[in-house]
Fold this protein.
Amino acid sequence: AYSEYQPECLGQPSMVHNIYSAEPPMAYLVFPIKASITMYSIIGFIPFDTIRTFYPPPLDIGFTGDSLCNPCISITPGDFLHVVWQRKRENTKSVYYTTTLEKVTPSRIYETQGNLAWSEKVRISTEQPWPTEPATNPTTEAHGEYVYAAWRGPNESGTPTKGDIWRRRRWLQNPPEDWYPPQNKSETPDN
């Protein structure tokens, strides 16, 4: 029954501003939505400024049995957006990533009505050869020529109840699916 649907997680919205563009400021917001009546979840994206808000299609849609939550957004010099989020499908919790395929500026947002070209969704948490799943609480940041994603995953022995912080990085010149191997960044690995 629809009333029995209990989403596993929701998470908070995440927002960045176009600080690198010479154009007027614009904010970019990603957020989770849970629709219990229809039993699906969404990772939404909304660009807005002081004049207008745009409502493009969602970045990802999870249907019955999927749970999408905890999105995070970052922006790199050159005005590219990077988004990570958590997806639970069956018994697997994974972190996914997408990026814009072109520079994002306020004039581009107005021109496309917020409908941007995004890369394919890439699963960046791993099961093998480095078990970093179940993966929860993803975050992303950009620095220089790299974008980083970090999340809570199992310890290096694969024990999910003893969580460690895992991080991957992607050189911005590489394709969106080409990431360096995960690294354990915990101060106390295997605890």
